[in-house]
Amino acid sequence: MNEEPQDEVDRLVAAWRAERPDLDVEPLQVLSRVSRLAKHLDRARRAAFAEHALEPWEFDVLTALRRAGKPYELSPGALIRATLVTSGTMTNRIDRLAQAGLVRRRPDPEDRRGVLVSLTESGLARVDAAFAGLLRREHDLLAGLPLTDQRTLSALLRTLLTPFDS
Amino acid sequence: MNEEPQDEVDRLVAAWRAERPDLDVEPLQVLSRVSRLAKHLDRARRAAFAEHALEPWEFDVLTALRRAGKPYELSPGALIRATLVTSGTMTNRIDRLAQAGLVRRRPDPEDRRGVLVSLTESGLARVDAAFAGLLRREHDLLAGLPLTDQRTLSALLRTLLTPFDS
DNA sequence: GTGTACTGTCTTGACATCGAGATACATATC
DNA sequence: GATATGTATCTCGATGTCAAGACAGTACAC
């Protein structure tokens, strides 16, 4: 029951148990690890994208368009839902991506309030290269985990995620 | 093999498989879920802290001090390591927390380069209240997962996290 | 059709973060 | 004890994000 701590969260939980033995800190075992791992992943992603001169936020938008398939075109609203950012942020992102020549904006012919954003040739090439590089890195990060464990892990995470995505 | 998508990541993976059948996108099943779940958790935490008039970044610093135990005092360097932010960020955070009367700064008597930051009475009360509230919320978020699954999940996450925390 | 509520996008201002560098002090080596 | 290297903290400028609100256009009820 009193094993050696292996990661920062083990130490964190042990510290809380010493300080507040009256509280059930079990949820931290899962949720603090999710948060901390995400923070580390952000850094790893940043490094992977730097090889292709892309910022993480640029990659986020470009991949959303890439996944949409030909003609690689979505509305800002759809991009907002895909990336979980606010509308102000998305406007700003599209502005800068357009300026960098990676995306293009055009009026939506079916809704005069609307706009459609699409990948340029250059944007498509960049995102494909960066995505392949990201997958290589992520594959390495998961190398320590057998495939069956990865499946178990993703299934459990899905259970937690489903309520948010409904 | 062709189940219904249950969360956004299932849809994301399906979209990639349609667009890039040549790539092995399996790593996304785990790592995209970690990132997205962390993003949702950030929002939930923000809401939980708002009840106690605390920002997430304030909570991060205050809990690090709280966990340290009496006299609830750490150096900025120790706080940096605990919170994974840069030194410039931590200076700024301590400034504002001190201004809000939640922490106190004093020179380190043993190292004249150094500073020690400690919780005030008010800071201690606020962080204890906010932490209890957070645990309640996190407990609810995990309600859908039996304890044995939570244990499995945290063990798998620990495996991924250990290389970063070494 | 007219009024009302809703939707989609953009604008603005405030803010927390980062990275690079500056400064002061400490420690190790000779 | 002088020099060089390392450590702890802070300063500064740039940047990406958010929240709130503005504005144009759409949809629905009557």
How much helix, percentage-wise, in residues of chain A?
Answer: 55-70%
User: For the report, how would you describe the main beta sheet of chain A?
Assistant: 3 strands, antiparallel
CATH architecture of the largest domain in chain A: Orthogonal Bundle
Give the domain tally of chain A. Answer: 2
The interface involving the most residues is between: A-B, 62 and 62 residues
CATH fold category name of the largest domain in chain A: Arc Repressor Mutant, subunit A
- What structural class is derived from the secondary structure elements of chain A? mainly alpha
The overall strand count of chain A is 3
Describe this structure in words.
Chain A has 166 residues and is mostly helical. Chain A folds into 2 domains: 44 residues; 114 residues, Arc Repressor Mutant, subunit A (Orthogonal Bundle), CATH 1.10.10. In chain A, 64% of the residues lie in helices and 7% in strands. Chain A contains 7 helices and 3 strands. In chain A, strands 1-3-2 form a 3-stranded antiparallel beta sheet. The longest helix of chain A is centred in the first third of the chain and has 25 residues. The first copy, chain A, starts with 7 loop residues before the first helix and ends in a 5-residue tail after the last helix. Chain A binds a DNA duplex (30 and 30 nucleotides) through helix 4 and helix 5.
